[in-house]
TrEMBL record:
Its cofactor is [2Fe-2S] cluster; [4Fe-4S] cluster. The lineage of its organism: Bacteria, Pseudomonadati, Pseudomonadota, Gammaproteobacteria, Vibrionales. It comes from Salinivibrio kushneri. This is Biotin synthase. [2Fe-2S] cluster binds at C97, C128, C188, R260. The keyword RNA-binding does not apply.
Amino acid sequence: MEIRHNWTAQEVQALFDKPFMDLLFDAQQVHREYHPANQVQVSTLLSIKTGACPEDCKYCPQSARYRTDVEKERLMEVERVLEAAEKAKASGATRFCMGAAWKNPKQRDMPYLLGMIQGVKGLGLETCMTLGMLDAEQAKTLSEAGLDYYNHNLDTSPEFYGNIITTRTYQERLDTLSNVRDAGMKVCSGGIIGLGESARDRAGLLVELANMPAHPESVPINMLVKVKGTPLENVDDVDPFDFVRIIAVARIMMPKSAVRLSAGREDMNEQMQTLCFMAGANSIFYGCKLLTTPNPDEDADMQLFKKLGINREAVSQKPDQVTEHDLLEQVAERVASRPQEGDLFYDASV
């Protein structure tokens, strides 16, 4: 399978129009050409700062503009993040993702974020963060601290984007991804299905991702989790076969990328998830919650993996020769150098 960066909307639509079984057969063949069969990478996602986000993303319960059950929380202490990472590793995760509900991180946040990155790396886990927009200098700083992946989704097609978000432009999202790539980090970028977009918009999202100069190493495909109080709480459900199709088309268009089955798995039965794996999904988030929305529990995932003969991907990094105590001392030194910023647990909601 040729690696391409020049897909047209017409070509992508032709893939979507294939008979369902033919599409899955083609996607599975592409998958096995570039990835081990029956292997799924497992990640855990932790919300390190929840709620009070100034953005107006219509799907997000963390936006300060909507009245949802999500409560505003401050940035987590580094020690608590490391405790969560240790539990995730013990449960079989190989990558630990940290998400903050910000439009972009402020300079005062950086010492704490760097401590989290170094601490999680010290446990032998891959690291990923999603913090909103990054400028070139912030991306460089996070990369130098050892951040492996940065997540920044495009969400949908450029044409439909304005119907969902108005507080940042599509180009700003692309600029952040460019800064991440230039800083030497791996890119995690995908979208959300079920926002009320058309089939053309779904194809347009994949064209944007696949025609980047380098494909994202990780492509999360989310199925909208409808949350009461958000503008999209009553949008129509996604047809399961349509969702499986976008997984398959993503696999064909971005053969080397990890295609991650992300938000919405709580509403997928075992059969639907199995079809997604057949279509080329080879990464999941593991645990009871994705930021603020439900996720299948660990036991259910492991039971399904056992039924399907899927073996979780082995841990890809060895723990660094550094203790948690040493890491926390390094963080304390950085914080001490910024006395005007207060103690380790401060209000990051503004």
